[in-house]
Specification:
Elements (H helix, E strand, L loop, with lengths): L1 H8 L1 H17 L3 E19 L2 E6 L8 E4 L7 E3 L8 E11 L3 E11 L10 E6 L2 E6 L5
Parallel strand pairs: 4-6
Antiparallel strand pairs: 1-2, 1-5, 2-3, 5-6, 7-8
Length: 141
């Protein structure tokens, strides 16, 4: 019976060890997958919120409009190098992490435009806690 009492005296150690092990398991990326994506013939780019974008692509001879979205992309790098006879191109890297559940983000977002004038203002809405902020951005020429 003496060994049982000694084991009970060590319960704080076992509790701390268990919490530390769960913390490490839950917050350490187990695997990471990267996928390079390049979209051609992009006809519309929407910024839903800072770093979150939606792209619409439409290809010649196809009546369907394809939608693609990014998440946590940050600020894009904008290039004015798209040929005038082709559509706008968008390039980015999707990153998937298995991290106590699936986690997704976007890296290296690039917009390849025809002209700088293709960047326009728009309305926006952002939720900050219980407050919803709205506004309108405009192009100053």
């Amino acid at each position: 019976m003496k060994w049982y009492r000694e084991l009970l005296d060590l319960w704080p150690f076992f509790l701390c060890f268990t919490i530390l092990a769960l913390f490490i398991i839950c917050f350490t990326p187990i695997s990471q997958t990267k996928k390079e994506v390049e979209l051609d013939s992009v006809v519309r780019i929407f910024m839903r919120d800072y770093g979150n974008y939606t792209f619409y692509s439409q290809y010649d001879g196809d009546d369907r409009v394809y939608q693609y979205s990014t998440y946590k992309a940050g600020s894009p790098t904008i290039y004015v190098d798209a040929p005038l006879d082709q559509g706008v191109r968008v390039k980015f890297t999707e990153v998937y992490l298995l991290w106590g559940g699936m986690y997704y983000k976007t890296e290296n977002l690039e917009f390849h435009l025809h002209r700088v004038e293709e960047v326009n203002g728009a309305g926006w809405q952002r939720q900050e806690g219980k407050i919803t902020r709205t506004g309108q951005t405009t192009v100053v020429e």
